[in-house]
Each structure stands twice: as C-alpha cells, then as structure tokens.
Amino acid sequence: MTTVAADISVHDLHNTLRGETEFALLDVREQEEFSRAHILLACCAPLSRLELMVERLVPCKKTPVFVMDDGLSEDLNRGERAARVLAAMGYRAVRVVGGGLKAWREAGFVTVNGVGALSKGFGEYVEVVQQTPRLPPEKIKELLDDIRVRTIVIDVRPTGEYRNMNIPGSINLPGCEVTYRLAEVVKDPGTTIIINCAGRTRSIIGTQTLLNAAVPNRVVALKGGTMNWQLAGFDLEYGSTRPVPPITEEGRHMAEQRIRKVAEMYHVRFVDPRQVAAWQAEAGHKTLYLFDVRQPREYASGHIPGSISAQGGQLVQATDEYAAVRNGRYILMDDDELRAIMTAHWLQQMGLPQVFVLKGGIFNAAVLAPQGLTEGGDCPEGRAPTGGVSAEEAARQMESRAGILCINVGASNLHRARHICGAKWVARAYLPRVRPLYPQAGRIILTAEQSAHAALAAQDARALWPDAAVSFIQGGTPAWERAGLPLETGMPCALCAEDDIWYRPYTDVNASKEAMQDYFDWESGLVDKIKADGCVNFNVKSR
Fold this sequence. Notes:
This protein has 543 residues and is an alpha/beta fold. The protein folds into 4 domains: 10-113, Rhodanese-like domain (Oxidized Rhodanese, domain 1, 3-Layer(aba) Sandwich), CATH 3.40.250; 121-244, Oxidized Rhodanese, domain 1; 263-368, Oxidized Rhodanese, domain 1; 391-488, 3-Layer(aba) Sandwich (Oxidized Rhodanese, domain 1). Helices cover 38% and strands 13% of the residues. It contains 24 helices and 21 strands. Strands 1, 2, 3, 4 and 13 form a 5-stranded mixed sheet that branches. A 5-stranded parallel sheet has the order 5-9-8-6-7. Strand 6 (151-155), helix 8 and strand 7 (171-172) form a beta-alpha-beta unit. Helix 6 (117-130) packs across helix 11. The N and C termini lie far apart (54 Å). The mean pLDDT is 95.
C-alpha cells in the first residue's frame, strides 16, 4: 500500500536540490500565489488541477516528489492534501516540505518571483555571457526607416502570440524555426536581421541562436520586444494573418549545413530509436520525456505515440511548464533532427544533464511507432469522466428547485468573461472554506471548462457535504453555452481571492506602462537571484 512518507526539512530539501538525483518539487499553491514568491526549482502544480497535469509533469511514479504550500494556510492544508492525492494516484515517494515556503524563507534560503524564472533567468545569463547584441526601439526604428539599409524583423514567438500583436511587417519564425526556415525569408547576407519577442528572453535566445549558427548577417535583438516598442510610442499590428513560411529543399539544405556545425560545436548528443525503446521499458523506474519540437500543426499531422508537443522555443522559454523532474532524460525529436539539435544545444547549456536528439527523426523510428504515427493534437488534460448531468438537466434542476448551489471551479478569467447565471466562483483547492459559508446546502452542481475538473471538484464536495446531492455538468460551462442557456458576465460572487492566474503583461494589449517596466526589471534581476540560490549551474560558452 502506498503511503506518504514523513516530511522533509527545508535544509534536507536544499541539499537535494543541489544534487544530481532525480526529483520533482511541486508547489501546489495557485499560480498567482506562486508568482509572488517560490523556490527557483519548484514547478507550479496547483492542487486545484493537480490530477489533471501531474502525470505529464512527473511521468515516472517512482520519482521522489516533494510537495509544498505556503506553510501558513493551515485550514487548507494543501501540502498534505496534495501528497494524499499523489499517493492515491500511485506515486511512491511523496514527501511534504515541512513548514512550506514560510520555513524555507525563515531558514534564509532564496526565493524568486514571477513564472518561468529559471528559463527567463537563463536568457538573461546568455545575454551577459555571450554579449548578445541588442538595440533599443528608437535605434531599431531608425534602421527600419532608413531606405539605405536592408532590414527584416523576425518575431520568434508562437503564432498565436504573434497574431495577438506584432511589429508591423514582421515575419513569424517561432523559436527553433528561426534557423530552420531563415533561408526562406533572408536571401541576402547584407540584410540586417532584427529579432523580437514580447519582452526579452526569446529575443535574446533567438538572436543568439542565429549567431551560434554563424549566419553571415548582422543580427540584433530588439531590446524589450513588443512591450518596449509600445512603451517607446511606436505602433503595433494586431491580428496578422501572415503564415510561417514553408520550408523548401534548398532552404533546408542551407539550414542543415549551419545546424550540423552547431551540433558538433556544442557536443549535442544523439540517441538511436532502439535505445529510446529500451529506456521506455525502464520508464517505470527512471523519468523519460519525449518532446516533439515541431510546430503544433506538424505534430497533429503525425507523431510518435506518447510524445508531447513542445515547440522548441517554448521548451527553452518555459521548461518547467513541460517537465517538473530535474535530472531526468529528455528526448527531443522532429522530422530531420535539425530543430531538435537547436533546442538541445540550449537545454544542455541550461544545465540539464541528459538531453538527447532522436537520431534519424520520427519517420525513421518505426521501433517507437510500430503501428504508425498517431494523428491529432495533444490529449486534453484529464480523461472524460462518466456520470454527471447534462447542461439541459442542470438548467431544469436550477429552475425548478430553490437553493441549489452552483459553483464554477474553472479559471477565474473565463468565469468573469461568461458563466452560468447565479454560479459562484472558487478555486477548487479552496472548497473547504466554502463549506462553512453554505453548511445547509442540499444540492450542489459543479462546473468548469473541463468535465474532468468539475468531476474532481464534485468528489471533493461529496466529502465536504456528505448529506448533499452533488453532481457536475457533463461538458462543463462550454456545454451550457452550446445548449444556448443563459450566461452572465463579471464576478458578482468570488468565494476566494482570484489567485489562480498570473497575468503576463506581454500577452495583454492593454497592459500598463508600469506593469511592462516591472516585468523588465524582474527579468534583468534574475541572474543575481539564480547566483544567490546556488542550486543551478548554467553551461554557457563565452564569446
């Protein structure tokens, strides 16, 4: 029988974080709480959604998993609750960080704020060590306006972000696509290439990617990306429909020449499909991640079963969103090794010890896909639950019976945008605090964007209200909307703080100047924080 081990002290945890063994540190607070302060190597895995995300983040159930909360909210006891959830799911080495974040800080250990701090701090470190060239928006605008200078602006963000807002006339080459597809958009070595993202990290990494690949052009980063461009008073373009240019055989050949040299220079490691298959057989004992670094549409057209779509640029930009286990095996794959190589050479420099490129690409890996490649996108989080009531039945119950408590445990921003009339909002982990507010509730209906999320909340509610009739809406709030049932907007009744989402200023077209400047200040301060933490060593080559 699986049990939760005794607590681990913050001092023992600190020693573990500095070691070379596999572990996962899961901070189970809500994302906004996490963003205010957390341990550098912690992965945000809110208790509210833990069952829906943990098997991707921690695929091997023998991995030592440390869970922690704030150490303050004893009535919620999120660390212990998370440990019980993980134990029930079959995780065999779960320990709670005694005293949580409070004890960590009292011991004098370093915390960081924001989200994706390790990856973003890595970008800042790259800029310092490799002296990545950059120019402020005013200088970039001068270049673009100078008819004597041939320039091109390349935006390295995912297509969705690019379409949200971009520099007018820019071309979208997301992440590792920038080297792979460069020849399709830059024909002249005399053209100055300007790389941008929304802020700093991806601009730095994108610029340095081309420099590492030894392109003959002048390459510079737009300092501060679209946010800084906006702060400088320059116009942005919204809703661009320019596609990522397709790869040609000639362009692929040029990319290969450059990328193979990167592989040799940075000692990128390759692994045969048969070895990966052998590691898959060991996956119950040692962590193995299979990341497909191509664009999502390519992944959807055919991928190796069990692989996860993780665009190369995003895997570097937000590593902890894809993998919570430190020191596990990372297998990177695409169709011809090239984009995987460029992603791998960054992850190696980030200090990840076991990063490999699948030799020959996915189309030469029949041993990993004996039934052929799998089509379709990523599997949605959680399995579709059985049971529940239809949206129409829930509506009939709410219309015919007084006193029904309808609770939405989905994302607060989506609840604010539209929700079932009369529904109250709360993050699922906070349901124990709702019980005293409605002690006599006789019938409770749960909803969310996903049925799986609502079904899990319904299980919690049955334990909290054992005498109540508890159900969830099959298909959640989207099913209610599809049925044409009435919705309302706003947040008339939030039963806890709206701490479930950290709002990124670089995705908000209406972000304030103060929010954008605070974001820049945070990014630029991360290098000192990481050095003070002492648990991570980057392996970046100086120029």
